Amino acid sequence: MSSMLKSLIIMMIAGSLAFAGGDGDVINYVKNKLSRNPQVKINGAEVEDKLPIPGVKGWSAYIIAVDINLTRGKETRRIKFEDILFVSKNLITSELVDRKTGRDVRSMIQPKMPKDIYSQDHLLYGNPNAKHKIIVFSDPLCPFCRMSIPDLMKAAKEHPDRIALYYYHLPLSIHPASATLVRIMEVAQKDGKMDIVEKMYQIPIDSNLKDEKKILGIVAERAGYKLTPEQIHQPWIDKKLAKDRIVSRKLLVTGTPTIFADGKKDITREKYKKFIKEK
Question: DSSP H helical segments within 80-211, as ranges?
């Protein structure tokens, strides 16, 4: 789902304070908000998790899983997404700000990690028994990813007993060419060609390019790795990329790069530098 479309949907839920009495009230709040839009058909909504808010008393963060059909013009799309609502004993709101710091409380919330987050098929570099585990959600054509992810890969590759790097794809809709590059990366990783995975962060390519054959041609020319459309559209690749999308959704990851160090979101994106300096 594009960031613009997701923002539109969240705006449907957002609103002023409402009264709450329990989980049922929270779900009714969401459904009432969404039902006001005639383009939306609600398939389901449920409380997926309840989390305490660090340093904020009397409020909890509710992770709400929503399943809707959204009609825009002649097109209808089924969309599943998660969002956060803040709930006290009597109130519900979609926004909560720390008055002293001005910090959006949403940025302090981190859903629980899926049990299989550290799966072997997502291990890019490092020993699975390494002292520290890092998870990254990335898009090879994201400018910020291109500035930081190669260094992270290098650190994990050179310090395998200190860092295990688990890589999840999050190709952004604003970079159409990434949808093809991540498929190439999957084939390369399975073939053990890790240098090709790294080169996807280096080759010059128009991020707006949508022609798959042209992208494959550029990669063949620039990286020396030739693949066919059939090779990058195998069922196992579709399955893995679908899993990556689900995991990013569960963890409320919307931008790249998003990094988790030892189970906690790393806003600095540089904790790994401390890990490699440890004695």
Answer: 143-158, 178-190, 194-199
Q: How many CB atoms lie within 10 A of CB 217?
A: 12
DSSP 111: P
Work out the average pLDDT over 139-150. Answer: 97
Rg, Å, the chain Cα set: 21
Structure tokens at 61: 């963060």
Cα separation, 153 vs 202, in Å, equals 13
pTM for the whole thing?
0.80
Which residues lie below 8 Å from residue 124, measured CB to CB, with a gap of 6+?
Answer: 153, 156, 165, 166, 167, 189, 194, 197
Q: Which domains, from first to last, does the chain contain?
A: 3-108 (3.10.450), 120-277 (3.40.30.10)
What span, in angstroms and rounded, lies between the C-alpha atoms of 4 and 8? 6
**Token pair for 239:** 């399955």
**Burial class of 236 by CB neighbour count within 10 A (0 to 12, 13 to 18, 19+):** exposed
**pLDDT attached to residue 100:** 84
- Range of weakest confidence among 26-30, 39-43, 54-58, 131-135: 54-58
Q: Is 60 helix (H, G, I), strand (E, B) or coil?
A: strand
